[in-house]
Amino acid sequence: VSTVRTVLGDIDARVLGTTLMHEHIICGISDEQTIREDDVVEDLQAYLGCGGRSIVELTNTGMGQRADALERLSNASGVIIVAGTGFYVEKWHPPLVSKSTIAELETFMVHEIEDGIGESAVRAGIIGEIGTSSAAITADEAKVLKAAARAAAIAGAPLSTHTSGGRLGREQIELIKAEGLPLNRVSIGHLDLHPDPAYHTAIAAQGAYIQYDTFGKLQYRSDADRIECLVEMVHRGFERQILLSNDISRSAYLSARGGWGYCHLLQTVVPELERRGVTQGAIGLMLRDNPARFLSFASRASRSA
Ligand SMILES: [Zn+2]
After folding, report:
1. Could you report the per-residue pLDDT of 142-163, keeping only the tens digit for each?
2. Fewer CB near the terminus (10 Å): N or C of the chain?
3. Is 20 within 8 Å of 269 (Cβ atoms)?
4. Is 103 exposed, middle or buried (0-12, 13-18, 19+ CB in 10 A)?
5. Contact between residue 288 and residue 244 where contact means Cβ atoms under 8 Å apart
6. Considering only CA atoms, which of 151, 133, 160 is closest in space to residue 295?
7. Separation of 163 CA from ligand 1 center, angstroms?
8. Hey, is 23 helix, strand or coil?
9. Gyration radius of the chain over CA positions
10. What separation in Å is there between the alpha carbon of 113 and the centre of ligand 1?
């Protein structure tokens, strides 16, 4: 049986159902971007109402992560939540990152996966979002990414990245590959911010998942642009490697606050994919089967040769 690690414990992967692969539920990298516990309950219930079941929550240390709150919110709402570990872009690294070696950062992430996040007993089920800046991958970001790849191999956990503006995904892949982590354990995030099918093919052809996870953020890119590229990648046969989400990262994006909310993907994007001829089979893969496969833990310390 394939197992997924949620904030309430390990579950059979088949229970996950429709899953958003890159979201924030509690988030505080700046006052403006904070999502508080009280803000979000209504939107989590709405998400179940529109057919959703599970959310991957990629807020980690330095981004205002609150594992205890995620546990409470999962219990209160019934939404299955998978929590992240690791570190975001360098601007939001805690001091720990620059002071630590790769081995120490690897130990930190394995600890949060196997023992609990921070002082809590709530365990992380994914490494992410692991960030890189837009112009270049900084030395500390490369250190974190290497540690993340090693921790993913040791703990058997999936690894999810943040690219800035969708750029440098190939460079992330090169760093991860060099650590020996199989690329079917890796998802490259925010690629829909740079919707170039040739670029996405270069990543997916190596076996990694490609993430279209900022639907609704029209200030960066129209959903039409995202959908155009996604449909092309389905036509190219990569529907088993595509993961989807909305990246709700501020209170203003919640539907209770007048935003588009966690339901946007299911209520607005999926109907448009259907109109564009994407089959129910492909949609089921992207919403359910791919998340279940990717989030399932591999056996511990299964490094590739
Ligand atoms: Zn991100």
Report:
1. 999 999 999 999 999 999 999 9
2. C
3. no
4. exposed
5. no
6. 160
7. 7
8. strand
9. 17
10. 20
